[in-house]
Each structure stands twice: as C-alpha cells, then as structure tokens.
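Sequence in, structure out.
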Amino acid sequence: MELSECFDILGVQPGAHLKEVRSAFRRLALTCHPDLAGPQGAKKFEAAAAAYARLKSATPAQISESLKKKKSRGAFAGSPFARGGKEARKSREGRRAAKEDDRSQRVRDLMLERALVETELTLARIVEKAARTGDSREPVSVAQRLASSHPGVRLLAMGALARSKPDRETFASLVGMLRRWPPDDDIMEHLTLIDCTAEQKLEIIAALEPRVHLLSEASAFSLMRWGSSSRADESLNERMLSHPSPRVIARALARWRRREPPDDLTLIRLLKREEEEEVLVPLLRLLKERSIPAFACARVRLLSENHASAAVRVWAGSIVRAKNLV
C-alpha cells in the first residue's frame, strides 16, 4: 500500500500530522469496528488499521517521496499531452470540434455577406432601370447607394448622378464616398460628367487631393482637365507632383501658374529623378522662368555637364548661363 493512499483511506489531507492521522483512525474505528458495525464494516476497519500502521511507521522522508510521486502521476494523467488518456482525448476532440464550428461559422458569414452584396447590387440595378424608364418610385436614394460598400452599387449610383444635378444630401454623400474610397477610372469618368457648381467642384477636388497619388494615369489627366477651370487648379497641380507617373508630373509642371517654383522638398525629390527626361525638361523650363533656389544650383550644373539626355543638358545649360551659375 502506497503511503499516499493511506491518507485517502483515513480521509485526511496528504501529509497531515500524525495527531490528525490518529484522530481520523479513532473516528473510523468507532464507526467501522466489527463489534460496532458488524461484518460489513470489517473490510473498511482492516484497511483503516493497515493505513494507520503504515503511516505510523513511515519516516517523514518516505511520506514526502510518496506524495511527490503521486503528484507527478496526477499531473501527467491530467496533461493534454498524455497519450491515450481520457483527458487528452477529450481535449483533442474539443479543439477539433471548436475548429469545425469556427470554420463553419466563417463559411456561413461569407455566404451571408455574399448574399447581402448580391442583393444590394440587384436592388441598385432595379433602381437604375426604374430611373431610366422614368419611374418615380425610387426605393433607395442615390445618396444611400453612394454610401454602399459595394463598388458596383456605387458605380451605378454615379451613373444615375451623371444625368442630373445633385441635391445637398446626394452631394454630401458623393464627397464622403470620394474621401472614403479611392476612385477608379469608371468613377472618375462619371464624376467629370456631373453638373456641379464652382463651389461644389472645389469641394470635390479638396476631397480627392489627398488621394491623387492613387489615381491611374488616365484618371489623373481627366481630373486635371476637369479642374482646370476652378480656383483649385493650382493646389491640384501641386498635389499631382506626388503622382508616381512621370507623364502626370510633366503635365502638372507644364500647367504651373504660380510665380514661385514648387516647394524645396518637392524640388529635391524631382531633381533626383535623373533617369526621367520627361520630368526634368519641364522642371528645368519652369526653373528658368522662375527663380532657382540656391540649393538647386549645384544640381543643375551637374545636369548640364553629365546628363545623358541632350535636351536636359541644353535646358540645364541655359539656366547656368542665364542665372550666371558658372
């Protein structure tokens, strides 16, 4: 009989003091002794007596060692890494069931989202058809469709908006859409067809300016043409200088109307684009017509001497001679 089992038989805490063990044995003896409980208590009394005798004769070191063994066996048996154990199997089955439930929930969510998107797009098409046929019953307004998360719904709304002048609510929704989602080529094509006032055009350009570097080359050209007659033309040109396309930058430089050249950081960035002749030539033409900052003089001299493009060398050389940078 293991010492750890003796404590369980007597009903005391593992490692209990000998006085507690003796008291527990006496209580069991009063209830389980054959003279008091009859033959049915004999086995329990014998087990209690054997446990008491075992604990009474054991040393503290033996008791401690037995308790450590029991603790290690119990920890291993309850560990999820114990092979073949019931707890391990339950843990694995629980994790597997949780994964299956999570996967099923994700599939259901995706199917529901797809169904909602398709429903929204179908409704937008119905509304578009009703607008074309002159049906005045419009279940969803253009403003609501412009706020949709589905690009197809927004495009249909832009198509409907291009045929009429937007009211205040619709225009506010349009500006919110342009600030939230970068417009693609189709959206920009419809946008340039909207009948806007000068103030509305300024507000649209202000909403688009932080995102002009995300526009495609065709959309950037379209926006510059559309905004050329507005008071925001100069600020739009300045924003276009951050566009990744060299052709867009060249167009913005050619349309530059301010008396002063672009700011210093923009000039430094543009002068470093040495491989792009279509950027450097209009930039050098602009610097020749305006004042050239002192930090750019050395860069222009290097371009006039070492650049591979003859056009760049000619324009840089003309600046060196005109500004007396030799």
